[in-house]
Known about the structure:
Helix content: 40-55%
Number of strands: 14
Strand content: 15-25%
CATH class of the largest domain: Mainly Beta
CATH topology of the largest domain: outer membrane lipoprotein receptor (LolB), chain A
Oligomer: single chain
Structural class: alpha+beta
Amino acid sequence: MNRIQLLALLALAYGASCQAAVTLQVTTSVHHEPLKSVTKSPADSKSTLYVTLADDYITAQSDSATTIYDFKNRRRVVLDGASKTYVDYSLFDTAGFRVFEMRNRIGMNAMLAKLNSELKPARKVDLEQELSLAEDSATVIDASTSGDALKFSSGGSPLAQWSKHGAKVGARDAAHFAQLLRYTQSVHPQVLARLAEGGLIPDSLNFTVNTAMGVSTVSVSVEQVRSATPPAYTLQGYTPRQAAPPQGAIEALLDRMAAQTPEQLAALRAAHPCDTEANYRADQLLDTMLGRLECTLSTGAAMLPFTPAQLEQIRASTPVSLAFSATSVSKQEDFAPAAATLSGLRSQAPRKAYVLKLMEANNRARLGQYKECDQLFGEVLEANPVLGGAWKDMGDLMIMRFDTPSAWRSWDIGRRIAPTLPNFAFVNQLEGEIAKRQPEYLVY
């Protein structure tokens, strides 16, 4: 899909209430200077984006795909022009990754500071520049003018500079351009704030990014800045992507469930009803207990209660005791035997063995056995795709792997299935913290 086709696609949703926007071409060149100790570094690169800065969204079209940053709905939609498919992501996943990565880097810095090593902790400002994220405003950024360039540095090290020449635009368009760079480049938040308030889209910008691998110099040129009439974007002519298993089994599972209509979700729920009193089996107590737990994890409703006599039987059940003891371990050396216990109990739960697999997957995740986890989660969600708690736990696994796009996709699916499930309180709280502490990623 070329630029003209993209604009034609967007124009399908044009309405009289639309406000002014800006289109522009952004070309980025990246040069890497690796440290002497680094034997392999990324190749230099050059890419071009055709951009629309609209009233409540940004589109950025490359040769391979078009990304729509939808700030109104807090979504990031990626269109594949060749296959006419799209993938809908959460706008939280980008900020979420950078928050987790910043915390990880700070932890590594603290560890390096304690070691007598040639490796030195990264400077705070360099982390903030690389991740376009700052937890506070304590970093001092110095601004200076040199000829027709505005320069920014910290502690004598260059961070950014841009030309005073370019397209004079309104305050909103300048802020929107800075937001584009926040998502597509590595630029310190304080520098982006200065760019946003400048009333100018510079024709050239340069950024210096210091990493553990070396120094990257980013050169950005901006051309063809034009006023435009921004339509609301549309996905007309596109269908949700369907990844192909088995190579992308989890990805295919995410795609399939993300594409479910409300009617299809209702049909899936009907096909996987909760257990009732009639399902109680005194000779299959583990199976019975797992069935009632499954209902809670699927709907968020309280577990169907047991009678006093049934509770007495449950408490005396060795398989039930073994299963739930295996889910409450906290020491690293206990996760492997607990996972083995859960695997060995499957024969005791002929209907609901996949709920045991969910418990086992959580233990194996803490052992770093991610391949085994993928297999288990795939089997669990093939058996019951509306098991909301499984989508929550699989999202947690993706976070352990720093795959925040897949994590938020999994969490979004789970919250759509079981919005009142208490397990998602962590996700809701995390999004609230990001919105409060990094509002610049969500406010447009």
